[in-house]
Amino acid sequence: MKLAEGLLQRASAQARMARLQKQLVQKAMGRSYDEQIKIPQKLLKDIEATSTNLDLLIRRIKATKMQVRMQGGGTLADALLQREQLRLRYASCRTMAKAAVMRGDCYSRSEVRFTNAVSVSDMYREVKVLAKELQDLAARMHAVSCITDLVEG
Q1: CA distance 53 to 44
Q2: How sure is the predictor about 71, in pLDDT bands with cuts at 50, 70 and 90?
């Protein structure tokens, strides 16, 4: 199995766990006029099996991310950290650029006027650079996950 397939299976297993937990809560909350409600053993077995499968997948995915080398150096896990840092910087720069564009309306000369503390064009230029870096990194990570075999558990 490839890493990309493992990631898809993990997402599917997580969604299944959420559905099973929702069913469990619904079964556990009976109405006062109902007789004692028994939680079906099949539901509990499904939760246990899905949880075990999810645990194995997560362990295999993490082990794979720690072993796989990226093209520019470092592991896939390092690339994930880099992606998070780029996302934070991108969000910060974009927020600052948006804030700098906003103008306070002044109705008279005696009101306080606001000026931009940063160059809006420079901030948007930085936002574009960071967006391009994020896109390139995501493409490299996707390419690696499509060709990398998942570590056996």
Answers
A1: 14
A2: confident
The one-letter amino acid code at 34 reads: D
User: In terms of C-beta distances under 8 Å and separation of at least 24 residues, what long-range contacts does 64-72 make, across chains too?
Assistant: 64/3, 64/6, 64/148, 64/149, 64/150, 64/151, 65/3, 67/151, 68/3, 68/144, 68/148, 70/140, 70/141, 70/144, 71/140, 71/144, 72/140
Burial 62-87 (b: 16+ CB within 10 A, else e): eebbeebebeeeebbeebeebeeebe
**Angle in degrees, CA 80, 52, 46, rounded to 5:** 125
User: pLDDT for 79-108, tens place per residue?
Assistant: 999 999 999 999 999 998 888 877 666 566
d(CA 62, CA 60): 6
Q: Is the pLDDT of residue 17 over 60?
A: yes
Which residues neighbour 104 within 8 Å (Cβ) at sequence distance 6 or greater? 112, 113, 114
With cut-offs at 50, 70 and 90, classify the pLDDT of residue 48: very high
Q: Which residues contact 100 (CB under 8 A, 6 or more apart)?
A: 116, 117, 118, 120, 123
